Amino acid sequence: MSRRSARDFDESDVRVRPNRRGSRPRTKDRPSHEDAVPARVVAVDRGRWRTVVAAGTEQERAVTAMRARELGRSPVVPGDVVGLVGDVSGREGSLARIVRIHERTSFLRRSADDDDSTERPLVANADLMVIVTALADPEPRGGMIDRCLVAAYVAGIPALLVLTKADLRDPADFLRTYAPLGVEHVVTSREEGGAVAGLEELRAHLEGRISVLIGHSGVGKSTLLNALVPGAGRATGVVNDVTGRGRHTSSSALALPLPEGGWLIDTPGVRSFGLGHVDPEELLEAFGDLAELAAQCPRGCTHAEDSPDCALDALVAEGAAGTAGPARLASYRRLAATLRRNDPWDV
Questions:
Q1: Which CATH class is domain 37-101?
Q2: pLDDT tens digits, residue range 106-163?
Q3: Residues of the chain with pLDDT under 50
Q4: What b/e sequence results for 269-303 when a residue is b if at least 16 CB atoms lie within 10 Å of its CB, and e otherwise?
Q5: 20, 80, 136, 231: most buried by Cβ count inside 10 Å?
Q6: Domain 107-266, what fold?
Q7: In the chain, which residue ranges form alpha helices assigned H by DSSP?
């Protein structure tokens, strides 16, 4: 057979393949997913979300899900209430799709460092932040507590300070530092036989609420959670004798239902709580008593200790109604100074 030259070919010799990828007409309409089943996200693991459907009922079941493409990059975190479609049976090997994130009541975030404004979402819909710190072994770190309080204020979440290991040190001196902030607190200690004193008082704060546990590694978060939720099985660790810090015993956030109602979300032990995402102007609003007095300061006043003509010093010293005194002002300034260091535009 002789070979045909290029000149011998015409249109009839060309086979046109249909463009299957673009064969469907595009539409901006998206499915409404009115049949989506509500579920609560309890954990995130390697691109899969563990959820609970019909929590607290006879139909309660764990459903593994993936994110639908239409959600884009919207973060989905423990505590979120989402809408699921697809296989929501919860059978082994089944996989549903998250197509909707319900409106959140709160959204707790942090950043990796103070000079990093990238937000790292932690928990959604929490209505109580439980800040856990040990009174000894490891030593309490006030800076971490301050940062957690700032994040809680910005997220609109009330805070509860839980002081563990009171059997090793009296909490009175430490509490005097934070009393002006008006933060509620619970003191716990280990008793003979391994029981935890103060646990019932803590339960009363948690009942019926979605609470998030925050704290350094080694302060006793996992010990508390195991006592509050029988069968939780969170690993507990020890404190390094050289560094005085604990090792990470929880590697991912996990939401667990409380026997008396509500949820408790345990977060991984953190060594730092960056506030690079926080606007320093938001802090004063959290101190309602001082914000009212600050209206008498000159325009542009930073309310810092060295700020000229700041009215807060004189007003607080005079015992203005509704303020907790100089210690309250000092607490605000300590938190505000932290935030100003995060703001590159505040010079």
A1: mainly beta
A2: 999 887 776 666 778 899 999 999 999 999 999 988 878 888 888 898 899 999 999 9
A3: 235-250, 344-347
A4: bbeebbbbbbebeebbebbebbeebbeebeeeebb
A5: 80
A6: Rossmann fold (3.40.50)
A7: 142-155, 172-178, 199-206, 221-228, 281-286, 288-294, 312-317, 326-340
